[in-house]
Design a protein that fits this description.
62% of the residues lie in helices and 7% in strands. It is mostly helical and 195 residues long. It has 2 domains: 3-143, no CATH class; 149-188, Ribonuclease HI, Chain A.
């Protein structure tokens, strides 16, 4: 995938992260105030969601740079899904800790700190699922030749053949082999398959 295409994917990722972070916060509010898991909410402490809008906006503004620092907006094929989930977890927990500290400094930000625990869990789940869906979509497109990078394999020996087999076996990586080169002319006549 070219840098231009990846920039478009990155912009789409940032926009979807903004939506999913806020959806996670809305769901956290629902779990805290409607379902009342872990601790019931007394009538005197019930707060409408609009009171949490500044906290949700601030959390979004904190999490996006945290995800960028964790490498969440770099090309997908360079990282495994579990590594992305780990980065999402690190970024989300770091952002949540910052929000809790800010909540102690500026108490009007939030009435319930438990909502941040729920938001952390839900945001990690939502963003992890979104990255899995992104991988599936990109893999589907790459198998059909969309967004692939052409590759020239250097070396026709065992290592070169192993690289070739791995690339051919996993078209979802987005690489298309155009040929191979070797400094040994005898290997240049070697049949390495359909290439």
């Amino acid at each position: 995938m070219s840098n231009r295409h990846w920039r478009l994917v990155s912009i789409a990722l940032v926009l979807s992260d903004i939506v999913l972070i806020n959806l996670g916060f809305i769901l956290a509010y629902w779990v805290r105030y409607e379902l009342q898991l872990l601790r019931p909410v007394e009538e005197a402490h019930f707060v409408p969601y609009t009171a949490y809008l500044p906290a949700a906006a601030l959390l979004t503004l904190i999490l996006l740079p945290a995800y960028w620092l964790e490498g969440m907006y770099s090309p997908v094929r360079r990282t495994a899904w579990f590594d992305q989930v780990y980065g999402i977890f690190n970024g989300t927990t770091s952002g949540t800790v910052i929000m809790i500290v800010l909540n102690y400094i500026y108490p009007p930000l939030s009435k319930s700190r438990l909502i941040f625990l729920y938001a952390t869990v839900l945001i990690v789940i939502l963003l992890s699922i979104s990255r899995l869906v992104l991988r599936a979509v990109l893999g589907y497109l790459r198998k059909r030749g969309i967004g692939v990078n052409k590759v020239l394999i250097v070396g026709a020996g065992k290592v070169g053949r192993t690289v070739m087999r791995n690339i051919v076996a996993r078209p979802s990586l987005g690489y298309q082999i155009v040929g191979f080169v070797d400094d040994n002319p005898d290997k240049g006549r070697t049949d390495i398959g359909r290439f």
